């Protein structure tokens, strides 16, 4: 079967399912009641971004609602357009477009819709499964999770502040769906008897699930057989919660929708005020880390850090990492030249490291930069409050922007970067290191500790709960970091693999976040956020222990030879 024929068969399979498996009458009314789509002060703009063959978008339009439709498959949108004409007439007034989810802001614009529907268990098919059902998604599971987070961010972007998203996934086993096995359904389609056989095959190891459908319409010898098969990634409740959280959505309401007996429904709201990736969870992070938001890593004294963490009293909140973090702080600062008069802190966040450096180097001026204006505002206030405002200053922007303009011509004795460059794309990361090198004095020291990619292959679980959560973009391995530093002219004096300490730190933070969640029982939104945080930290610790994520300390100097080459 050609790709075009397979796509058409899949579209017809979906159309049959809409009329036989689901309830065309009850679901649109259920969605309207659940989301309060009718009777408001003004008409709501609604987008069904996985419209398939037009259900339930056309029905919602028939109820007088302002509904637009889109789907990644042209075969699907063609069927939706035909359905709109057949049910509503040629003047149906619906805007129906073909686009993928990551294209939503480009196609529709930003902050356009009050409500987005992302239903029908469509998330698993984020790759080209709809338009190319024969594609091997099994080998692209990591990419699929990455694209799902990007798609969720695109959905976030087309929603107005305060807008709502309705989405779903397969829930508990039902008579309609099973995770692994065969389901039979019977009904009437286009006036003909139809027998449907669905076979589901789950591959937990690869993180995929295949849906094979055979629909037999009518009787022999004129029977029509519609067969299709599509493979998608596993998207269960835990993946849905992670994907939406990493995209920026707030409280995720697990709910029920009248007429929806097949899928588990969720309603989530876009915050009215978006503080951005760097600041979205700062207040909550401080409750798990500490009040100034810095105590998140520790250096454990024993030879087996993951075991050492179990000896700590992790029930006292951020106290679990007080001792280990103090040890790490002392260790890092011992690598700085005590005579340093000027230090640049790249990726300073809320300024905690810069303020700490100012205390340890009483004669030095510290210059910090961060892309987040909110972080810089907090940092400036903290520096003043702690009495070092005269020796600590901050810049909103990247290292390249600060060193190329605001600090152009200035030379620094030392540079510091803590868990920051991992968030930059590789080209920007290299550019930041090059900018640091260009404005270090000969003999100047770079103290860099950051996330690195581990030597083990990255699993789909690590991709979603670690790399997507932290927005780690093209992470380097430790050897790649050292090769880059050397190629820029640095002399790498020391590299220390701190991955086991990273695993222990995440384990301690997971326990702490879980304890904090128990204190939030009266605040369901906060409790959910801390439970998600505890889950993510636990997985991050496991992935570090499995060497799918790493943490490295690099100490490098700018030699006189390197300085001459730069000049």
UniProtKB/TrEMBL annotation:
Protein origin, superkingdom: Eukaryota
Pfam family, one: Methyltransf_25
Signal peptide bounds: none
InterPro entries listed in its UniProt record: MeTfrase_dom, Methyltransf_25, SAM-dependent_MTases_sf
CDD domains linked to this entry: AdoMet_MTases (cd02440)
Residues of the Polyketide synthase-like methyltransferase domain: 332-567
Keywords: Transferase
MF terms (GO), sorted A to Z: transferase activity
SMART domains, A to Z: PKS_MT
Protein name: Polyketide synthase-like methyltransferase domain-containing protein
Organism in which the protein naturally occurs: Eutreptiella gymnastica
